[in-house]
Amino acid sequence: MKLSVVMPALNEAAGIAATLQALAPLREAGHELIVVDGGSTDATAALAAPLASHVLHSEAGRARQMNAGAAVARGEVLLFLHADTRLPAGAATAITQALQRGARWGRFDVHIEGRSRWLPMVAFMMNWRSRLSGIATGDQALFVQTALFRELGGFAPLPLMEDIELTRRLRERGRPACLRERVRTSGRRWDTRGAWPTIWLMWQLRWRYWRGTPAEELARAYR
To answer: What is the pLDDT of residues 194-215, one digit of tens each?
Structure first.
């Protein structure tokens, strides 16, 4: 199965080259790598250009950027990957095997890299909650059959919680493949804001989302 890796990016010049270089084996194997820049004011797009199959430009907003990338994707499977996240070895094989077993979408377990000693607990809770609920976040490298994604209309144009909203709809079509292979993602938001304040904020936001608070209001609280 051909993968189309869709990576939204905004002012990621400090790390985008290393992230894309780590994906070079996938591109060499015939998979597609699409970077969607949301109006960076640094050299993100220029640094990405020689290392990606396509570099697109769109309005800022992760949901809009990922929809823009998915719209031009030619692969049978979409893999949405954050610019600060690394895939495990053998990711394409793991995804293919999961879909061959009957899954239509899924995600990886996550390992969070950072200074805080609480990050292993945060990652454990994310993985456990996701496996129990069938809901996943963008940090876990969501993958989905391209046809199913387009049938559902893609990501809702929300400023926050677009991953939760999509996976709720995907769950109605079937449970996710919860792969135990781990992506490695940056813990920079926990390191910057502090581990416990960030944990508390994220739990508050999710609780308010489940209670029906508009995503625009949640985005303001997050910022």
So the answer is: 777 877 777 787 778 777 888 7
